[in-house]
Specification:
Length: 156
């Protein structure tokens, strides 16, 4: 399956989704600057330099919708490489159940969990996700932490 630039943001709060989209767009800008810098420093005639990431962002307000979106994207051969999810999303399933459902479809998907609550310890989450491609951030979070995680996961 080809590696894509798709990110799925899941949060029941539209304002939080908008903030997260803005942060991912900052990652786009940062990747463009890095690509331009690499081109100016390392461009050799005929050698292709990496293009900016140009992330495509989809969003869902509930976990069940997100699982269906991930299934569809995976089945179409254009899967998400990253899910950014809140934990608490009433009235539906929580973010952890959502991510477990998405990982049944696409076990390799990276996960960034952002929450204001400690419903699960970091150790519990590491055990659930086997520690791979996973980061937990507590609200309020630092934009740079998200930007750096997004860029580092995509470049793997």
């Amino acid at each position: 399956m080809k590696k894509t630039n798709r990110i799925l943001i899941i949060d029941d709060n539209e304002h939080v989704r908008d903030i997260l989209k803005s942060i991912v767009n900052q990652a786009n800008t940062k990747s463009e600057k890095v690509a331009m810098l690499k081109k100016s420093l390392f461009d050799k005639e005929g050698e292709q330099q990496p293009a900016p990431m140009d992330f495509r962002i989809d969003e869902a307000s509930q976990g069940s919708d997100a699982i269906e979106m991930a299934k569809q994207a995976f089945n179409e051969g254009d899967p998400y490489f990253l899910v950014i999810s809140d934990v608490r999303m009433p009235p539906g399933i929580d973010g952890i159940e959502t991510i477990m459902g998405i990982r049944k479809v696409d076990p390799g998907i990276a996960v960034l969990i952002i929450t204001a609550y400690s419903d699960y310890s970091e150790g519990e989450l590491l055990a659930k996700f086997n520690g791979n491609g996973f980061l937990l951030l507590m609200k309020p979070f630092d934009d740079e932490d998200i930007i750096n995680f997004v860029l580092s996961i995509r470049e793997e």
